[in-house]
Specification:
Blueprint (H helix, E strand, L loop, with lengths): L4 H9 L10 E7 L18 H8 L2 E3 L2 E2 L5 H10 L3 H4 L33 H7 L3 E6 L14 E3 L30 H15 L5 E6 L14 H5 L10 H23 L6 E7 L22 H4 L4 E3 L8 E3 L3 E2 L3 H9 L15 H4 L10 E6 L3 E2 L14 E3 L2 E6 L2 E6 L4 E6 L15 H18 L13 H14 L1
Parallel strand pairs: 1-6, 1-7, 2-9, 3-10, 4-5, 4-6
Antiparallel strand pairs: 2-8, 7-8, 11-14, 12-13, 14-15, 15-16
Length: 479
């Protein structure tokens, strides 16, 4: 296999300024990977022994959230450390989603490129002398390099693998050579392993942002028969998804082996996260309600762990609610680098929790803002949503303590849940817990004003009430 030239050039161009005492950071970020899609979180069909081992040796967070229920805004919040009203990426693209005659309000289009004047944590880490690389999905602009990365493998504005998971990959930059039947997830894992082996002498940060397990659900061919013959689980049984997950996990195993063989494993922090909930037609987050695109728990609660030898105690679990914007200040503190001067960061560092202490994390509210629409996945989706036409209509959400409030702009309705006793969001308490509703609503209103959140208020002239009612009845009958 030919080594991409950029790897060799950077190997000799980055000075060894700090030595091994500066920890490396491997950030594994998966796409559409659900809360229960690993063994350590409870899957009874998918196989993830390498991820399970890392989780067992680290700290697992059970109340970890993405900052959005779909790809682009989640990634923008992650990289910027800011909630969606600040960076204005609200959806995948800026066009309206779903049928116009079913949308009561005009959506807020927002933008589809992360403002390059916003400092990312990659910028901060790069400025501190680290070699920075991104491999896989980028989705926030045409090129990730201006945002703090020196190496780019496969990062473009595309939201998924441009030509699927099997070759050819004509629009995927930086892959180097690959065989005619090489699975894209394996290729990215191989490039990550190569990066680790070649840069053992310099501090590095690798953002391994797999396209997997985003659609198209192209199974890894070698594993199809195995899962077709495997007994289905009560929670999971999707063969293609299982093969895709196994490919991710085996790649993680190869990268960890490379860390061990280069003597850098004990000096490398490994963080694992997902950009939103799982893809509804292929996986299940039960007992959570919803899936990717919804603002119920299944759409925003995701798996998360930190493995840091000698710092984070292994075999630990943390139930504190955390969110994607927390990773910016966390990464800066982990690597002892300066944060951005004059830029608002909405998150807080998780380091006190990771070291086993208390933190302001437990006392603050988490927020989501989605002034747009996401159309339904279609048949079978109705029980997971407020209606079968949209995964989400314009809404804002707050979680504070165990309480979660959803506000829907089309109707002015609220839903209130006590997640401590009702993790499945089955019992709406908005009609009985009026005092709690008003307190959360006041906090949500204040946050929207503070962040300058765009509120959709203009009626859509193309909306057709009768057509909407007919489409809902038809979808519900189809089931």
């Amino acid at each position: 296999m030919r080594v991409p030239a950029i790897f060799c050039a950077l190997l000799f161009s980055v000075p060894v300024l700090f030595g091994e005492e500066r920890p490396n950071l491997l950030f594994i970020y998966l796409d559409d990977f659900g809360w229960k899609d690993t063994g350590f979180m409870g899957s009874d069909f998918y196989e993830t022994p390498n991820l399970d081992a890392l989780a067992e040796e680290g700290m697992v967070f059970t109340n970890a959230y993405s900052a959005s229920a779909n790809c682009a805004p989640a990634r923008a919040s992650l990289l910027s450390g800011q909630y969606t009203p600040r960076h204005k990426i609200y959806n995948v693209g800026t066009g309206p989603r779903g049928k116009a005659k079913h949308r009561r309000l005009l959506h807020v289009p927002g933008v589809d490129v992360l403002d390059p004047s916003i400092t990312t944590w990659a910028n901060c880490i790069q400025e501190a002398g680290y070699l920075t690389a991104t491999m896989g999905k980028w989705h926030l602009s045409d090129d990730p390099l201006p945002y703090g990365f020196e190496v780019n493998v496969a990062g473009t504005h595309s939201g998924g693998p441009p030509a699927g998971y099997y070759p050819p990959h004509p629009k995927v930059p930086g892959l180097g050579d690959y065989s005619d039947d090489e699975y894209l997830t394996d290729t990215l894992s191989d490039r990550a392993e190569q990066f680790v082996r070649e840069n053992r002498e310099s501090p590095w940060m690798l953002y391994l942002t797999h396209f997997a397990v985003h659609t198209p659900l192209n199974p890894k061919k070698e594993y199809v028969e195995k899962y077709e013959n495997k007994e289905p689980g009560e929670l999971h049984d999707h063969v293609a998804m299982a093969t895709m997950i196994q490919s991710v996990d085996e790649g993680v195993g190869r990268i960890v082996k490379a860390l061990e063989e280069t003597g850098t494993r004990e000096n490398t922090i490994i963080v694992f996260f997902s950009d939103n909930g799982g893809y509804g037609p292929a996986t299940d987050m039960a007992p959570l309600k919803g899936y990717k695109g919804t603002y119920y728990e299944g759409g925003i609660r995701v798996p998360f762990f930190v493995n840091w030898p000698g710092v984070v105690e292994g075999g630990t679990t943390n139930d504190s609610p955390i969110i994607g914007v927390d990773l910016f200040p966390t990464f800066c503190e982990m690597l002892d680098v300066e944060g951005p001067e004059g830029q608002i960061l909405d998150g807080v560092s998780l380091m006190p929790l990771l070291k086993g202490g208390a933190s302001e994390v437990t006392d603050r509210a988490l927020f989501w803002h989605f002034p747009a629409y996401l159309q339904s996945f279609g048949k079978g989706a109705a029980p997971e949503q407020r209606d079968p036409l949209f995964r989400s209509r314009p809404c804002s959400v707050i979680r504070k303590g165990d309480w979660k409030l959803l506000e829907f702009y089309e109707s002015g309705e609220f839903e209130l849940y006590d997640l401590k006793t009702d993790i499945g969001e089955e019992d709406d308490l908005s009609g009985t817990e009026v005092e709690k509703l008003e307190l959360l609503k006041s906090d949500l209103d204040g946050w929207r004003k503070e962040t300058g959140a765009d509120i959709p208020t203009e009626l859509n002239p193309e909306f057709d009430h009768d057509s909407e009612k007919k489409a809902i009845r038809k979808a519900m009958a189809r089931g």
